[in-house]
Amino acid sequence: EVDYCGDSGGGLRGSLASEPKDWSGLGDECDPLTFEVGLRYWYSWGAHGMTVLGDSYSSNDQSQILEGHFRIDDNASDVYVKGIGGYSAVINSSYSTPGVAAGSSQSGRIMYAGADIGYAPLGDGDTKFGGFIGYQYWNDSPDMGRVNFGTGSLPNDITYHMFKLGLAGRLDLGGVVDVTAEVAAIPYAPLWGTYGAFDAPGAYGVQTSAGTVSGWLWGASGELMARVKPLENWTVGIGGRAWYLNGQADVTFSAGGTNWITKTQSFSTLRYGLLGEVTYNF
To answer: How many Å apart are CA 1 and CA 10, to the nearest integer?
Structure first.
């Protein structure tokens, strides 16, 4: 009985019973898949701004987010897949709109989910470098108040779809500490949603609908994590992360018996902060 494994000799290996020496020191090539699953806590700061029809809207928040994450590495091919999903637990925000000079809130919603697929052929052992592509759904909607219009009012509810192209690497320091880093360009990020804080200038007549935003943005993202292994198969880490989108968006609304559409002079969203992580590896 024989088994093939991508050893340095590049050939057939005898059975475990007959040739035990051939099976000593097997590396990732003979057990190619490794898995990580864990939880993160993200203490983040958010900043949003929009200028449209000569009026400015802005918000700033401090939000606490719980996140799950996973990663699967195929060490034989240097391909990996990883994903995240998170939801806000606490949001404390302040905002300014044409109708509210200084407001504050403890409501709203921040949630996201995404996955990357990467190829890291450069390096040796657990130290790997390469590139990745990915997609992320991101709803970032801290409360900015609501404008009362003909049929009621609606809260902000804005979603971004981010397509990423980036570089990533992992540096292993003696099997006890590892550092991971990634940076990505976001060349295309469609957005869609309700901008409940939008307040049409009086020249357009009485507003009878909430504002709707649509279009696409561009931006960048980055993440840095350092992890230690206090126990077999467990790591604890700390790091930081930032996501940024910028560009122009269309704003659609009804006022004075007419449906209007206009383009913002500016539209941006930033979220950044500190990460804490506990991960199980197998």
So the answer is: 17
Q: List the structure tokens of 80.
A: 């990996």
- List Cα–Cα distances, 84 to 28, 68, 87, 216, 221, in angstroms: 25, 6, 11, 23, 14
Task: Give me the tens of pLDDT residue by residue for the chain, a chain 282 residues long.
Answer: 334 354 444 444 444 444 544 444 444 446 689 999 999 999 999 999 999 999 999 999 999 999 999 999 998 899 999 999 999 999 999 999 998 989 999 999 999 999 999 999 998 877 889 999 999 999 999 999 999 887 789 999 999 999 999 999 999 888 889 999 999 999 999 999 999 999 999 899 899 999 999 999 999 999 999 999 998 899 999 999 999 999 999 999 999 889 999 999 999 999 999 999 999 999
Q: N- to C-terminal Cα distance for the chain?
A: 28
Residue showing tokens 């957005």: 191
Do you know the residue count of the chain? 282
